[in-house]
Amino acid sequence: MAKSSSLFLSLFLFCFLLLTACSPKILRLQDTVPTVGFRGIKIENFQPGNNPQDIKMRMGLKFLFTNPFSKSLTIPEHQITLKLNDKKLNNQLEAHPSFNIPPNGQKMEIYMFTLDLNPQGYFKNWNVLGRDNYFEFESRIKIDLSDFAQELGKYGIALPENELTEKLNVEEILKQKLGEHTIEFAFGDTIRLPVLPGIALSNQPGKVNFLGQMDTVDLSIFQDAITPFIDNLLNAKLQSDMISPFIRKISEIDCPNIPQPRPCIDMFDDAVKGFIDLSFNGTQETNLRNDWNNLMEDLTETPEKEDPVIDLVVQTFLPNAQPNLNLLNSQWDAFKAFDPLIIFPGKNVYGIEVILPFKFINNNKFPIEAPHLLTETSINLPNGQTYVPVTFDAAPTTNSTTIPAEGSKEMRMKMRLTWDQGGNGVMAFISGQTLSPNLTGKSAIDVGYGPLKFNFNLANMQFRVGE
Questions:
Q1: Within 13 Å, how many C-alpha atoms sit on residue 364's CB side?
Q2: 21 with 152, same domain?
Q3: Based on the domain organization, do 77 and 181 belong to the same domain?
Q4: What pLDDT score was predicted for residue 203?
């Protein structure tokens, strides 16, 4: 009996092949079972909490399932496997739930995965963050198609009615032929797992420019008028500029009404010496004569080097004023070198423009695009007030916006504050305070999967007023 059954099955399969070869409708296995094909991928980033480092990546793989049968097909719950750089992810994926495919229809099913990109999270020691990686997805679905054996009749299979077919249970044979069927499908591609960029201080100082028409005043007329007088006052020498010229004039004048004309100063010198000789003797006479001779030498001979008159006056009468005199000399030199055309903010100035340079740092091993705008940005002034600008713009200082892998780009932010927007606190920019504004705020960067927000806080920024 066993040999007879084997013979019948062999004859059936022979006829089955013969009929499928001759029939205009060719029966193939893929025509009788469900199929599945990849239809696309969707990736996005999101940050669920207030901590910018808590980055999640949501990835969705789209697969299209087809049902060739005339009744609904149930796809049971099935397991999925995801690998990153050939390393299997554990505890990251859940079983995909069961779903139905309508009769003679299709069903688009999306397989969603969420990856934790926090540097201190799941991938902390994987060396995958901030770089390109290769991921692989695969799954196996086991379904029993024996209940769909009667569906094969629609393909035009008709066995001749004879003694052989009467003894064969065709539907039972097809059930055994189909039985439990496994659908296998997979997908692989590269994926970037980004890390947040950084913002750092620039080597360039920040600047503040006034908005509106500046006023001017030209002090050159005062500078030119006062310079000769102050120079002479501060630099005139006692003997070379004051006493010596007078004494030289006196020495050239002959005394009148004498038989043999002689310079009056010589006669006066002789008279003083004669008086000393007649009136004193001993040590007194010697000391007085020496003092007189030294005085005449100082009066009649120009010294090679001598102090200014004002120094002598201060040393003699105002010794405690010497530091002030030194300061006066240094400030006077600065005044003479100072540009006499003074430009100052007047009534036509309505605000200030703050330019804050900074560095945008790419911490990834692939290039990214620098953000054109910073959002929710504020500037902290030295007087403790904080301003959120009404208008602002931040862009790279060059035409290229690409930041190379593990590179940086110089950027600058322009912010405008007007008097009515900033109030009295804005005047800290033009007061005598030490200016060191800080830049704080939030921004976002997109590496291809949606925006990533991050906080920044720059301290100790260099600063100057004007160009």
A1: 25
A2: yes
A3: yes
A4: 82
Question: What is the CATH number for 23?
Answer: 2.60.40.10
Q: Are 94 and 114 in contact (CB under 8 A)?
A: no
The CA distance from 243 to 310, in Å, is 14
Bigger pLDDT: 204 or 8? 204
pLDDT digits (tens, 9 = 90+) for 322-372: 888 888 888 888 888 888 888 777 778 877 787 878 888 899 999 988 776
- Say if residue 332 is in the same domain as residue 419: no
385, 425 Cβ separation under 8 angstroms: yes
Domain span holding position 113? 2-193
Query: What gap in Å lies between CA 175 and CA 146, rounded to an integer?
Result: 4
Rounded CA-CA distance 169/182 in Å is: 25
Residues 166 and 236 in one domain: no
- H or E segment and range at residue 402: strand 402-403
Identify whether residues 264 and 319 lie together within a single domain: yes
C-alpha to C-alpha distances, 249 to 104, 136, 243, 245, 410, nearest whole angstrom: 131, 110, 10, 6, 72
Q: Global pTM?
A: 0.56
Total domains, the chain: 3
- DSSP characters for 248-287? HHHHTPBPSS-SS--BHHHHHHHHHHHHHHHH--HHHHHH
- Residues 82, 17 share a domain: yes
pLDDT above 90 coverage of the chain, percent: 16
Q: What is the pLDDT of residues 182-240, one digit of tens each?
A: 889 999 999 989 888 888 888 888 787 888 888 888 888 888 888 888 887 787 776 66
Same domain, 439 and 457: yes
